[in-house]
Amino acid sequence: MKAYILDRYGKGQALRLGEVPDPVAAAGEVLVEIHATALNQLDGKIRSGAFKPILPYKPPFVLGHDLAGEIVSVGAGVRRFRVGDTVYARPRDGQIGTFAQRIALNEADVALKPKNLSMEEAASLPLVALTVWQLLVERAQLKAGQKILIHAGSGGVGTIAIQLAKHLGATVATTTSAANADLVRGLGADVVIDYRTQDFSAILSDYDVVLHSLDAETLEASLKILKPGGKLISISGPPDPAFAKAQALNAILRLVLRVMSAGIRRKARRADVDYSFLFMRANGEQLGEIAKLVEDGTIRPVVDRVFPFADINAAMAYVGSGRAKGKVVVNVKDGQGA
């Protein structure tokens, strides 16, 4: 089958279109013909080598963390799915590779595709929607009447987070550019802050939760707006000791991450704020819950552009530019780079 292969780590390193062996569904796995995939900042970080200590993929390998497609075979013991089901998924770490025509993945990572979405729309959701679910529902336990600041509201995570936070009954503030203000308001944001001309830390106060996805300066400034007992949850780092333990990292890496996060953890304790780092995990059951919210109109995907499979390197460059609103998707099924 055709796939885009990363031959070596490096910032901006081009992916090579090549032939790789056809995957086979092992016991407990399903084989999916991929119709569409989506690109994430995580793909660029892995490509550059920034995540090698945490996710030690050995080149050559196939990138890609999102898919929508059709099941073409099932392995022994699979009970939840059958051939012909249309599904969406975020493969678990260690089994990624959606920049390809097919993939075999654990059935526990898969859910039926929302019926009201195209393949491209569905492919845009898994990684960002799981990130948001695990942050707002599991980690923050966001409740009606609480206040949350969602940084970068027009991005892939932000566009879904605004919608889920409103569904949970929270008051939502977000940062974005003036050009994207109408977009985030349309998604449900109550307070919109133009990060280019306004200082969110001077405007907001007494917030319960901050979803952080930007730089260290913004992370530290976010402490100022949280009430005592508030939660500062970052998806862009620095990773904390709890994450290192959950990942079962070796002693050296655990020490490194402890040192890296020591400053923000210390400042958070002084402010009586809980700091934590979240690295999302694959979960088909949660994708099933998200599909219900999509089908009833609570959540809608935001897709900026759809690229053909042949232009996946151009799509990677576009994501890297930081200009995308919502998600960037690649149509794998049509014109598969031949």
Description:
The N and C termini lie close together (11 Å). The protein has 338 residues and is an alpha/beta fold. It has eleven helices and 16 strands. Helix 3 crosses helix 4. Helix content is 31%, strand content 25%. The chain has two domains: 155 residues, Quinone Oxidoreductase, Chain A, domain 1 (Alpha-Beta Complex), CATH 3.90.180.10; 150 residues, NAD(P)-binding Rossmann-like Domain (Rossmann fold, 3-Layer(aba) Sandwich), CATH 3.40.50. Strands 3, 5, 6, 7, 8, 15 and 16 form a seven-stranded mixed beta sheet that branches. It has a six-stranded parallel beta sheet with strand order 11-10-9-12-13-14, with helices on both faces. The longest helix has 20 residues.
Q: Strand fraction band?
A: 25-35%
Total DSSP E strands = 16
The oligomerization state is: single chain
Average pLDDT level:
96
Helix proportion of residues, in percent? 25-40%
Structural Rg: 20 Å
